[in-house]
Amino acid sequence: MPLTDTQIKNLKKQDKPKKYSDGGGLFLFIPPQGSKLWRLAYRYDNKQKTLALGAYPIVSLADARKKRDDAKRLLGSGIDPSQQAKLDKIHRRASNAITFNAVADEFLEKVEREGKADATMTKKRWLIDLARDDLGTRPISEISAAEILVPLRRVEAKGNYETARRMRSTVGQVFRFAIATARAENDPTGGLKGALTTPTVTHRPAITQRNALGGLLRAIWGYEGAPETKHALMLMAYLYPRPGELRLAEWAEFDLEQSAWTIPAARAKMRREHKKPLPSQAVEILHIQKELTGDGRLVFPSIKSRVQPISENTLNGALRRLGFTQKEMTSHGFRATASSLLNESGNWSPDAIEAELAHVGADMVRRAYHRALYWDERVKMADWWAEEVESMRSSTN
């Protein structure tokens, strides 16, 4: 007869092992020690086998019967329940070993192999580290959106809304890497886009009025500090690169005879090589600068070490000494300045301007056009802009 809970509770240990059948191969095994252990007797491949189902009362009578029925279904499909139990155990151990920390470390190694800039790697590591205390030891396949929201809310609570947004994006990259490498089935961060506070966009300060820009240019050309800093500011005005691209520039990147500067993919923000035409005014400044630092690798080395570039604050600090506050102009602002005035002129196609700024086009076709089709226009545009800089610098209106 089938067992009952009352009967099982009243069973006592005996001097010899005892079995109590529940039917369908399920039985309760009580060794002399008194434990109450569920077992399933079955035949597979013409062999008598026994499957352990757990101990009573942790595994209740109802649970034991369900496990028996599940095993019978496996047998009906030609699967040995004991072998399946071993595979499930291995899978659980493997899943537990694949933690967020382990996958995140692999992801960072992959990104670094792809040649991402040191600054990019530092930011990714920092953003991922913000999540490690809460997610690090958890199996990545088991992490829920609610768990990820905990460290995100902690960052938001400090008012760092943009950091929280970037953290969600970077953690999402870890999950998508886990999906691509068969360690997870979904990215829980996707459902959190609407949960975070949208940061207020603050545009970088830039001077875009011609008269005011003329005053800035005259101040730069009259700068009495280090000549290397003056030359760097002059080139920012002529070429409007990203400050880091100029700060880290190496002499090997410049072909002064062909009037071209090729910024390597490893240093370009969009991770693709960017070639810029050089107007004659920029070439002249570079020749002068080469007399100062041409015996080294860097165009603008630090005064403390010839193998280290000038610091990130060198150009902005020079602008402050010239009297321009952080709210008026920054070194990055030269890009917005040039972009605004080039577009306002109506002389150049928007795509050529975007190409010169090294922005990513709408699709791969446009990227190819940016590199090739607009080169001649960009050469003319570079010369025109240099003449405009000279005109605004010389004007007293």
UniProtKB/TrEMBL annotation:
Q: Where is the Core-binding (CB) domain?
A: 98-179
Pfam families, alphabetized: Arm-DNA-bind_3, Phage_int_M, Phage_integrase
MF terms (GO), sorted A to Z: DNA binding
Q: Keywords assigned by UniProt?
A: DNA integration, DNA recombination, DNA-binding
Q: Where is the Tyr recombinase domain?
A: 202-383
CDD domains (alphabetical): INT_P4_C (cd00801)
The record ties this protein, via InterPro entries, to: CB, DNA_brk_join_enz, Integrase-like_cat_sf, Integrase_catalytic, Integrase_DNA-bd_sf, Integrase_DNA_bind_dom, Integrase_recombinase_N, Phage_int_M
Domain of life of the source = Bacteria
One Gene Ontology term from the biological process aspect of the record:
DNA integration
Q: Which family does it belong to?
A: Belongs to the 'phage' integrase family.
Please name the PANTHER family in this protein's record.
PROPHAGE INTEGRASE, PROPHAGE INTEGRASE INTS-RELATED
Q: What is this protein called?
A: Integrase
Q: What is the lineage of its organism?
A: Bacteria, Pseudomonadati, Pseudomonadota, Alphaproteobacteria, Hyphomicrobiales
